[in-house]
Amino acid sequence: HRQLAPFPEGFLWGAASAAYQIEGGWNADGKGPSVWDVFSKQPGRTYQGSNGDVAVDHYHRYQEDVALMAEMGLMAYRFSISWPRIFPQGRGEANEGGLAFYERLIDALLAHGIEPVVTLYHWDAPQALMDEYGAWESRRIVDDFEHYCRALFTRFGAKVRYWITLNEQNIDTTRSFLLAKHPPAVRDRQRFYQANHHAFLANARAIRAFRQLVPGGKIGPTFCYCPAYAASSRPQDVVAAESAEEFTNHWWLDVYATGRYPASAWAWLVEHGQAPRIEGGDAELLAEAKPDFLGINYYYSQVFEDNALDGVGETDFNTSGQKGSTPVNGVPGLYKTTANPHLPTSNWDWAIDPDGLRITLRRVTSRYNLPVLITENGLGEFDQLSDDGKVHDGYRIDYLRHHLLACQQAISDGTKLMGYCAWSFTDLLSWLNGYQKRYGFVYVNRTETDPLDLARIRKDSFYWYRDVIASNGRKL
Ligand code: BG6
């Protein structure tokens, strides 16, 4: 077999998190409520009513968490800033209490030689803006988002080199406007495409402001790429898979990278009266704002087949952790999902497919030719604290090892891979699956509704990843 290229020197070995999923301190030091503080309290929205009021209390335990990162030898840590911590009303005067928290965190990371990778937006919009104008459904959010980003670039631009604009615009808006699972929890394709257009403009404005304020830094969006496979070599299934690539991947990545919506998807939306309204100057702004890299989150691949005009639409997904409970999803007349008989799945029915990561990196490199930072990849499982006081997560080591080998294959194929941030560092709140779906290298002792003592316990994967980092990936 082929000799694999080594991981490059300076490769960013990292781990990732998001504010709402770890911080807690939901109203500490002047923070305003986010849409998730409100949404998670509505009956039936989340798994067993779990919420991020306390989460894993990173807000108060960040020093202990950073010390564990340093012990592991982590070189990069991706975290997100909570917009309503900085602007409790979404705009206006910045809240010094919120800025000071992130300054302490960034300084603690830098003191240990850990590169901060800051996500500007990971789904927790200020509730004030939802109340005022429907958040992403109004163009007004574009100005408010730029104002928020400018405050962060000004305050932290000299300390933070790597920035992510929006986390998984595709997943968040799909769940908000097609699956009715994230706020505002509706099913409306026209509103979906309009909200996405505003998010594209916000992403572009953030990049434009960044060029002025942080000239030496690197910025890009993070996208959740699920490569589409055809269910068979029937040309109808191949067309379905191509449409799925176009509607579920290119729709976002083409706009980020080139400023243009993909042609065949655009034609279909015009025909169906779902295309977003575009105003004068939008196209120029989108074309001007070029990212330095693409952040890619990869969890699984998906298989698609032909779907009749009166066929299945957007339905739902598995939030229970019961294998086999994921329904078929699709867009009538375009495509629908089907299981992959060649792949094992997690308890949430996510196909375990390391080759899918290689395919993702090859497709993204061929189409956009930009450097890639893997901003998330990992395995959510029901980890157990054993009688010996340890967490033996060999299945996670196996998952990560094979995905890192896929990264090496992609590097050998020509992908410019800047780094790899595993999801996640500590266990955290899964938005809709609760605390029972664990991803961390560090176990956090809490249940769905009871924070217990929130003790941090290093899993077997913690020691394994430490050795991977120390050997720059030679010891997988
Ligand atoms: C990504 C998100 O979609 O996947 C994370 O950026 C999320 O916030 C992660 O937690 C894993 O998804 P889930 O549904 O298993 O929590």
From TrEMBL:
Gene3D superfamilies reported in the protein's UniProt record: Glycosidases
Active site: 376
PROSITE patterns: GLYCOSYL_HYDROL_F1_1, GLYCOSYL_HYDROL_F1_2
Superkingdom field: Bacteria
InterPro entries hit by this protein: GH, GH_1_N_CS, Glyco_hydro_1, Glyco_hydro_1_AS
Molecular function, one GO term: beta-glucosidase activity
Swiss-Prot/TrEMBL keywords: Glycosidase, Hydrolase
GO BP terms, alphabetized: carbohydrate catabolic process
GO CC, alphabetical: cytosol
Family of the protein in this entry: Belongs to the glycosyl hydrolase 1 family.
Protein name in the entry: Aryl-phospho-beta-glucosidase
Native source species: Paludibacterium purpuratum
Lineage: Bacteria, Pseudomonadati, Pseudomonadota, Betaproteobacteria, Neisseriales
